[in-house]
TrEMBL record, chain A:
Keywords: ATP-binding, Hydrolase, Nucleotide-binding, Transport
Record bears the keyword Lyase: no
Record organism: Starkeya nomas
InterPro entries hit by this protein: ABC_AA/LPS_Transport, ABC_transporter-like_ATP-bd, ABC_transptr_urea_ATP-bd_UrtD, BCA_ABC_TP_C, P-loop_NTPase
The protein, known as: Lipopolysaccharide export system ATP-binding protein LptB
EC numbers for this chain: 3.6.3.-
Gene: lptB_6
Domain (ABC transporter) ranges: 16-255
Stored NCBIfam families: urea_trans_UrtD
Automatic annotation (TrEMBL), chain B:
SUPFAM superfamilies attached to this UniProt entry: Periplasmic binding protein-like I
NCBIfam families: urea_ABC_UrtA
Entries under PANTHER family matching the protein: ALIPHATIC AMIDASE EXPRESSION-REGULATING PROTEIN (PTHR47628:SF1), PTHR47628
Name recorded for this polypeptide: Urea ABC transporter substrate-binding protein
Keywords on record: Signal
Keyword Oxidoreductase part of the UniProt annotation: no
Database matches in PROSITE patterns: TAT
Coiled-coil ranges from the UniProt annotation: none
Membrane-spanning segments: none
InterPro entries: ABC_urea-bd_UrtA, Peripla_BP_I, TAT_signal
Recorded name of the encoding gene: urtA
Signal peptide residue numbers: 1-43
TrEMBL record, chain C:
Chief location: membrane
Gene that encodes the chain: urtC
Protein name: Urea ABC transporter permease subunit UrtC
Organism: Ancylobacter moscoviensis
Higher taxonomy: Bacteria, Pseudomonadati, Pseudomonadota, Alphaproteobacteria, Hyphomicrobiales
Superkingdom, taxonomy of origin: Bacteria
Cited NCBIfam families: urea_trans_UrtC
TrEMBL record, chain D:
CDD domains: TM_PBP1_LivH_like
Annotated source species: Starkeya nomas
Descriptive protein name: High-affinity branched-chain amino acid transport system permease protein LivH
Originating gene: livH_3
Record's GO cellular component terms: plasma membrane
Lineage summary: Bacteria, Pseudomonadati, Pseudomonadota, Alphaproteobacteria, Hyphomicrobiales
GO biological process: amino acid transport
Record family assignment: Belongs to the binding-protein-dependent transport system permease family. LivHM subfamily.
Length: 255, 426, 402, 308
């Protein structure tokens, strides 16, 4: 991609514009001069071999890792200068690769903490569990198939249920950009099916970036696919186009 | 308080640690020869109701006192000797017939090197156990912590340590030296004998060394016309003295004047020696090293230094010879006796004398009678209680020897008057 | 949905029962059972319970282990001591001094005028505010600097420990301003009311109990608020909380400051009841000892902290009266036992062995058994290996002892 | 403050002051090395480190007594034997402690802190009950005391040289052990990934035990060496604990080099400050400086992997 082609005016059409992004750890460039753009309501899938820098890209967008150079603009706001919680409040949600939930709390409490109100210290002290909160939690719980487990401590959920709970925790924030890191990894076949169904309902009205290895799954959901290799974009486009790209074939299948 | 006189009976049967001295043995030779205080006959005549009007733990046959020192924690190092001396004195008094015909029992409590614990235990001894007197405390901080307790519940404390002065209480008898008694004579001596004019002051960083150094500085500058070339304080427990030793080498003082305490003491002298400062050539006068400390420092590391105290184990007088023999008999041949240990030993004896003078165990009467009470058999020689409740005593300079003992090199001709609030030194 | 929808008040029924039982013990049972002398000891121990209470929130809930709580206890105590000392140092009380009207230790140190930072402590209102705010401010500075830079866990513990060491050296070294190693002693009256009499000590005991109960309510309020759940969430998955839109550092700073203020109230009550304040509370040793009170009570149990404090101190006093040499073995053994065998302290034992039998008696306990069987952790299993030592029973644990 | 001194005096003093700083540096390295292994490699916070040192000091004391009483002819060399005995005594105690206590706590670093604090209280009381509450004076062979005159003013402390030599020797030995030996590779493997290390056949439990034992053994040797410059009593170990932890933490805990660099920085700062300021203030300023730097730059100094 040639960044100079893109003008500022065009930025406004994108929910997310990543330009010239580079991050190096002790000289090793995990992400190297990366640029890509995500449209409104687009589902973008990032694929690539292990160590291609996929998770690092998500870390950079959500502020967990600081970029060495480059810019990340979300709805015209520069994310590289913002702190993690500010990025979240701006409307970016992130699901981690391993289910990251609060094991000591109940499902209800897990969702409640993610409810986007009372996020400051005084706010959290005076936060009341009113009807609106309960209603919203119930609604999300039904979406993620956990309505019967609301009073259950999260550590007793199955692996798949934990993944759903984390997705639910993101949904309750209603983010405009949702980033999912391998949402179906480690799931049973039936769980995987249910998750695909879940994803299909939640991706409406928001942009989504998904990292996934499962090609079948990718084919089902992707609008556009970006292939990363050694921190750089190898290929980008529709699933069919990417699959036909000889460079991709070479990387995936070897010489 | 809800407790009353019955307590004295209740506790005596239940106290686990209550130890009674061996009563029926023949009186120790020390006392048999003195004949000063051993007069059981007249004591028997006094009824308990007459000698104890304030509900202390006194019965027809015995009287209970408290011993309050640290047997655990960092201060146990120093306070062990005091406990031993007090137990020895109590034992001897019991053998000689007790106090007003009553045997002394003691309750020992552990201050655990922690000042609030001292206050708590002092309160227990006074309120719960109703002890007639307490022998205890070592550091100033522990004394400061218990002082309000003694004043409030009207107890009497015999405090053995040489200390900074600036205190005087009806409820305390200070059997150690206040600062001027310990400091001035020593400075005069080193000025006169060694022609010392310049002094380097070094101490641990707390109230006793700082107050002592303040007095020393005034004396050096105003009375001796000398000069202080350095003054340094180190946190308690500091173990690195190489930098200050370099400063000493740079300033070349006639005298290093030291008041370093505890674990720092050991480090200081070992490092001085290692740095090649030969204490037989470089004068060093300390107010914080007794035979007890030399045990930890090692005699070979401090040999040659001078210490300003009122008592040394090596004092050559009949009282002391008996005392040292008795002490070693009770606590073992290897035990050494330092200045504070001896001062602690005076406590029970001075109390006995005051009680018998007052013909009462009542604290008010004992405190009043204490003025001008004397103890001729003191190992350090004759001592007498001043109206300000400190002791008249001599000052002595000893030179440390490699065997861990001091050789007496100077002693004041007369007893020095205690002056806890010295004019011109504040 | 029964439980999650039924929480309108911040205390659950079993919390209320627990608080009433504790209040009954402190207000009725102990004063009747103990003579005045022992009751004063209890009053002193209760001042440490404030520290333990703060540690429950800070360490138990938020996972921040501070080894410098003694600093805050000391700061609160010193603020109160400064007020009392000024009152005790009236011109006529101190006329023998070179400079009458200033504290005696200043006079001994050739200070001839009251230092500026002592001046406001003539005022009781200012003093009361300072007791709470000075430690909180100090905690804020330390906490802000460290949590913003994500210093946590072991490093936080060691740095707070170093701060305790620095504070001790400073207080001892600046004796002209602080009273040095002896501390500020010989405190007499509070606005003319003699605090040394037995009747005053009894009154102070009840004031202390009242304040403690108030602080317990504050702790419960915080714990049961969303903030309390965020603290638990943070201890468990800090990143998830951060990526749920929370500024994690500010929550940590808040709870650290709250713990500091609670400790300071304890320190001020200590000064009032015991009559002096000294640097021996500020150092490393007392700070770590205060952690053990919390651990014995149960690091997740607010009421357990009070019982733990009373138990350890009672053991210390009675042990050291009978076998002073053995006390350190007991205390050391307690540290090891509570870490190896009872990570949830008394509260955990209560929950495992006593509470199940009380189930029918308590509405709350009965309700808990109604949760699905999978939610009930198997009894007496070792804690799950999630640092920092998240116990299996988690938030449910404190319910039992309370 | 230097106006009244001649140039040669000044240069001599600065020379000696530099030497004093080096001694302090060696002392810090000796104190911290054992802890750096235990804390840096294993993530265990051993608050009883000082007590392991004092065990070494007591061993030295008893060895000296033995030589004095039974083989006075060889008194001159007893110190070397004492150090070896101290290493094994503290190391054995360390391994026992690891087996009884520490191995159950690897996943809870903060709890090791509390448990080892309890251990330190118990050890202190054991020392007090067994060896008595008073400090003991360890007598040194004559050749180890005193100093070598270089010029009129400049003198080099023999025990200082000895401590320096010992520090270098132990540091080199540890470095070789950790970075060159097969055993060191195993230790580092376990630190980085204990599951994997276990899977490839490393006995992780044994590695843990010996690593902990090694750290404690080095503490014992340090304690033995410190009888030359400090006190030996039941509570003497407490004198070192704060400094030691700060050195290790300031150095970034994981690397040996970090510990050495941090010991150098702190010792030079303290020794220089002590020369220009009073002792107490020097200490406060040094500690405060370390704490503030740690607060401001944790990311640079905290490159450490605590075992998870």
């Amino acid at each position: 991609m040639n960044t100079s082609v893109i003008t500022d005016a065009m930025n406004k059409d994108f929910v997310l514009a990543v330009e010239g992004l580079t991050v190096s750890f002790d000289g090793f460039k995990a992400v190297n001069d990366l640029s890509f753009y995500v449209d409104e309501n687009e589902i973008r899938v990032i694929i690539g071999p292990n160590g291609a820098g996929k998770t690092t890209v998500l870390d950079l967008i959500c502020g967990r890792t600081k970029a060495t150079t480059g810019s990340i603009r979300f709805k015209d706001r520069e994310l590289t200068k913002m702190k993690e919680h500010e990025i979240v409040r701006a409307g970016v949600g992130r699901k981690f690769q391993n289910p990251s939930i609060y094991e000591d709390l109940t499902v209800f409490e897990n969702l409640e903490i993610s409810y986007p109100k009372g996020r400051s210290v005084p706010g959290a002290l005076t936060f009341r569990r009113d009807a609106a909160v309960k209603e919203r939690v119930q609604e999300i719980a039904e979406t993620i198939f956990l309505a019967d487990q609301l009073d259950q401590r999260a550590e007793y959920l199955s692996h798949g249920q934990k993944q759903w709970l984390e997705i639910g925790m993101l949904l309750i924030q209603d983010p405009e950009l949702l980033m999912l890191d391998e949402p179906v990894a480690g799931m049973s076949v039936s769980e995987r099916k249910k998750t695909a169904e879940l994803l299909n309902t939640i991706i409406k009205n928001r942009s989504v970036i998904v990292i996934e290895h499962d090609m079948k799954f990718v084919e089902d959901i992707a609008h556009k696919v970006t292939v990363l290799h050694q921190g750089k974009i190898l290929s980008e486009g529709s699933m069919a186009k990417v699959q036909a790209d000889p460079k991709v074939i070479e990387v995936y299948l070897g010489h | 308080m809800s407790s009353n006189n019955d307590n004295s009976h209740k506790f005596s049967s239940t106290r686990r640690k209550l130890l009674m001295g061996m009563a029926a043995l023949p009186a120790a030779p020390l006392l048999a020869s003195s004949g000063l205080f051993s007069s059981p006959a007249f004591a028997q005549a006094l009824a308990t109701s007459a000698v104890n009007t304030t509900g202390l733990a006194v019965t027809d046959t015995d009287v209970t006192v408290g011993i309050l020192h640290s047997v655990t924690g960092t201060m146990a190092i120093s306070e062990t000797g005091s406990v031993q001396a007090e137990k020895l004195a109590i034992d001897q008094i019991n053998k000689s017939g007790g106090v007003l015909g009553r045997q002394i029992k003691y309750i020992q409590e552990d201050g655990a090197s922690d000042w609030p614990t001292f206050a708590e235990k002092a309160k227990k001894l006074l309120v719960n156990d109703k002890v007639a007197a307490v022998f205890g405390c070592w550091t100033s901080a522990s004394r400061k912590a218990v002082l309000p307790v003694f004043e409030q519940y009207n107890g009497i404390l015999y405090y053995p340590t040489f200390y900074e002065g600036l205190e005087q209480s009806k409820n305390v008898i200070y059997t150690g030296q206040e600062a001027t008694q310990q400091i001035l004579a020593g400075l005069d001596w080193v000025n006169k004998e060694k022609g010392a004019k310049s002094f380097y002051l070094i101490g641990s960083d707390y109230i006793w060394p700082r107050t002592s150094m303040k007095i020393a500085r005034k004396h050096i500058e105003n009375k001796l016309g000398g000069k202080v070339v350095g003054e340094e304080y180190f946190p308690l427990g500091h173990t690195q003295f190489n930098s200050v030793i370099n400063k000493i080498k740079l300033t070349k003082p006639d005298v290093i004047y030291a008041a370093v305490v505890g674990g720092s003491n050991v480090a200081f002298y070992k490092q001085l020696k290692a740095a090649g400062i030969d204490l037989s050539k470089q004068n060093l006068l300390t107010i914080s090293v007794t035979e007890d400390e030399i045990d930890g420092i090692g005699g070979e590391n401090i040999a040659g230094a001078y210490s300003s105290m009122k008592y040394f184990q090596s004092l050559d007088n009949p009282n002391n010879k008996e005392f040292v023999a008795e002490f070693k008999k009770m606590w073992g041949d290897k035990t050494v006796i330092g200045d504070v240990t001896q001062a602690a030993y005076l406590g029970p004896w001075l109390w006995k004398a005051a009680v018998e003078k007052a013909k009462s165990f009542d604290v008010d009467k004992v405190a009043e009678a204490s003025v001008d009470v004397e103890f001729a058999k003191a190992p350090e020689g004759y001592v007498k209680i001043h109206p300000n409740h400190h002791l008249w005593s001599k000052a002595r300079i000893g030179q440390a020897q490699a065997d861990g003992q001091f050789k007496l090199v100077h002693e004041t001709a007369d007893l020095i008057e205690p002056d806890p609030f010295p004019k011109g030194y504040q | 949905m029964s439980k999650s929808s039924g929480r309108t008040f911040f205390l659950r029924p079993q919390d209320i029962i627990g608080i009433i039982v504790l209040a009954f013990v402190l207000v009725v049972v102990l004063p009747l059972a103990l003579d005045n002398f022992r009751l004063q000891f209890v009053g002193k121990y209760l001042t440490y319970a404030f520290v333990a209470l703060g540690l429950v929130l800070c360490w138990g809930y938020a996972g921040i282990l501070s080894l410098g709580q003694g600093v805050f206890f000391g700061l609160g105590g010193y603020c109160m001591a400064m007020f009392l000392k000024l009152e005790a140092s009236s011109v006529e009380n101190t006329k023998i001094q070179t400079t009458p009207g200033i504290p005696d230790f200043m006079d001994w140190n050739q200070i001839t005028a009251l230092p500026w930072f002592w001046e406001p402590f003539h005022n009781l209102g200012f003093t009361a505010l300072a007791v709470i705010l000075v430690p909180a401010l100090f905690a804020f500075i330390v906490g802000f600097a460290m949590f913003k830079r994500r210093v946590g866990g072991v490093y936080f513990a060691i740095i707070t420990q170093a701060l305790a060491a620095i504070m001790t050296i400073l207080i001892i070294g600046q004796q002209g301003y602080t009273g040095g190693i002896n501390g500020i002693t010989d405190l007499r009256t509070l606005n003319g009311w003699d605090i040394r009499t037995d009747s005053a000590k009894t009154v102070l005991y009840f004031v202390c109990v009242g304040l403690l109960l108030a602080c317990i309510l504050v702790a419960y309020f915080v714990k049961s608020s969303k903030l309390g759940r965020i603290l638990v969430a943070m201890r468990d998955k800090e990143d998830r909380v951060r990526f749920s839109g929370y500024d994690v550092a500010s929550f940590k700073v808040f709870v650290f400051c709250l713990a500091a203020s609670l400790s300071a109230i304890g320190g001020a009550m200590f000064t009032l009841q015991v009559g002096f304040m000294s640097p021996s509370f500020v150092g490393i040793v007392p700070s770590i000892e205060m952690v053990i009170y919390t651990a014995v009570g149960g690091r997740l149990s607010i009421l357990g902290a009070v019982y733990g404090t009373l138990l350890v101190n009672w053991a210390k006093t009675s042990f050291s009266e009978s076998f002073p040499e053995l006390w350190l073995f007991g205390l050391g053994g307690l540290f090891i036992a509570v870490v190896l065998a009872f990570p949830n302290g008394i509260a955990g034992l209560w929950q495992t062995y006593v509470a199940p039998h009380l189930g029918p008696l308590f509405g709350g306990a009965a309700k808990r058994t109604a949760t699905p069987p999978a939610a009930t952790p198997p009894a007496a299993t070792p804690p799950t290996p999630t640092p920092p030592a998240a116990p299996p029973s988690g938030t449910a644990a404190p319910a039992a002892a309370e | 403050m230097f106006a009244e001194y001649s140039l040669s005096e000044l240069s001599s003093i600065f020379l000696m002051q530099g030497f004093a700083g080096l001694i302090l540096f060696s002392v810090f390295v000796l104190m911290a090395l054992g802890l750096a292994i235990i804390f840096g490699q294993m993530g265990v916070i051993n608050m009883a480190h000082g007590e392991f040192m004092i065990l070494g000091a007591y061993v030295t004391y008893f060895t000296s007594q033995f030589f004095l009483n039974y083989i006075p002819a060889l008194f001159g060399i007893y110190f070397f034997i004492a150090m070896i005995l101290a290493f094994f005594a503290s190391g054995a105690l360390g391994m026992a402690v690891e087996w009884l206590m520490i191995r159950r706590l690897y996943k809870r670093p903060l709890d090791t802190l509390l448990a080892t604090w309890g251990l330190s209280l118990i050890l202190q009381q054991v020392y007090r009950s067994v060896f008595g509450p008073r400090e003991v004076g360890v007598e040194l062979p004559g050749w180890m005391m005193g100093s070598l005159p270089v010029t009129d003013v400049v003198e080099v402390q023999i025990n200082g040289l000895f401590v320096m030599g010992l520090t270098i020797a132990i540091t080199v030995a540890v470095a070789l052990l950790m970075y060159k030996s097969a055993w060191g590779k195993q230790v580092r493997a376990v630190v980085q990934n204990r599951v994997m290390a276990g899977a490839v056949g490393i006995n992780t439990e044994k590695v843990d035990r010996y690593t902990f034992g090694l750290g404690c053994g080095i503490a014992g040797v340090a304690g033995s060496a410190f009888t030359m410059i400090g006190s030996t009593g039941p509570t003497s170990g407490q004198l070192y604990i704060v400094d030691t932890f700060l050195v290790v933490v300031f150095g970034g805990a994981q690397s040996l080099l970090g510990t050495i660099a941090s010991a150098f920085t702190i010792s030079q700062a303290q020794s220089t400050l002590e020369f220009f300021l009073s002792g107490s203030m020097a200490k406060v300023l040094t500690l405060l400086g370390v704490v503030i730097i740690l607060m401001l730059r944790p990311q640079g100094l905290f490159v450490i992997k605590v075992r998870r």
